[in-house]
Design a protein that fits this description.
Layout lengths: L1 H20 L6 E5 L3 H8 L7 H11 L4 H4 L7 E8 L2 E7 L12 E5 L4 H6 L3 H11 L2 H6 L2 E13 L3 E12 L5 E9 L7 H14 L4 E2 L2 E7 L2 E10 L2 E13 L6 H12 L1
Parallel strand pairs: 4-11, 7-8, 7-9
Antiparallel strand pairs: 1-3, 2-3, 5-6, 6-7, 9-10, 10-11
Helix pairs in contact: 1-2
């Protein structure tokens, strides 16, 4: 009940911000954080204490209000993007749907997650990041040696403003090429966001220009089954470079038949 009430209040404010600026045919609608006060007053609702949470909610977790969705032309949808410090834009983009393939081969891996970590992780996102980290799934998936540089990195990117990367890895391959790997962790109600991939790439280009950026999205399929996606931008669209599914199991649960499948797959 409390969550629905909060979302309804966010919807009232974000809808007011949009429609106070929107003109028919517009592809970009700009607004600033300090406009929230006037929008809340216009709608007769209390101003949220955490304005950032209202924006984050519609960026990554919840759909925009129907009154905004209905203005998008067929084949497009509105998203909220950072445009500088405390500045944002609604932008029209083609819909992005990155979901695990149902017929993807699942690779079983011995679960190296410490039981105490699994027992006390605070939320799906933290549990997922921990499982990716302790089972070295970035190394296995990308074929590089990678180390976690920072968890929940908050920084400012020129032209975007403040962003947060769920976890940032750096690594290298056998040739000495160095990589930076921003990781999105998707669990619970969170959905994959186009803008998060775009801003992760912009951040890496800004902060680590000498390193090769390889964005990754990790998503829970079930509590011990994880889908991994490597992403890239091509023709202004987010594309899936590769996808793998991993299941974390006791070592004894991996049969010789499983190993034969993996061995033959590698030869292919």
């Amino acid at each position: 009940m409390a969550l629905n009430k909060k979302l309804n209040r966010y919807s009232e404010i974000i809808g007011e911000l949009f429609h106070s600026r929107y003109v028919a045919g517009a592809e970009v609608v700009a607004f600033e954080r300090d406009e929230f006060t006037a929008a809340a007053e216009a709608r007769g609702v209390a101003l949220p204490k955490n304005l950032g949470d209202a924006i984050y909610s519609f960026k990554y977790r919840n759909p925009l209000p129907d009154t905004i969705i209905q203005t998008a032309p067929e084949g497009y949808e509105w998203g909220i993007y950072g445009a500088g410090r405390a500045k944002y834009e609604f932008r029209l983009k083609r819909p992005l749907s990155i979901v695990p393939r149902e017929n993807q081969l699942v690779v079983k891996l011995p679960d190296a997650t410490p039981e105490i970590i699994a027992a006390h992780a605070l939320g799906d996102e933290q549990a997922l990041l921990a499982k990716v980290r302790y089972n070295r799934l970035i190394d296995i998936f990308l074929g590089i040696t990678a180390s976690s540089l920072q968890n929940h990195l908050r920084t400012t990117v020129t032209g975007i403003g403040q962003i947060e990367i769920d976890e940032l890895y750096v690594g290298l391959d056998k040739n000495g090429t160095q990589f930076v790997v921003p990781v999105q962790a998707k669990g619970g109600r969170d959905k994959h966001g186009r803008q998060q991939t775009e801003q992760d790439i912009s951040c890496c280009e800004d902060k680590f220009p000498a390193l090769v950026c390889r964005p990754v999205s990790a998503q829970f399929i079930s509590s011990n089954k994880i889908a991994m996606f490597e992403l890239a931008i091509q023709d202004d669209e987010i594309k899936v470079v590769s996808e793998e599914h991993y299941e974390l199991v006791p070592a004894a649960s991996i049969s010789t038949r499983d190993l034969d499948i993996y061995r033959n797959r590698r030869r292919g």
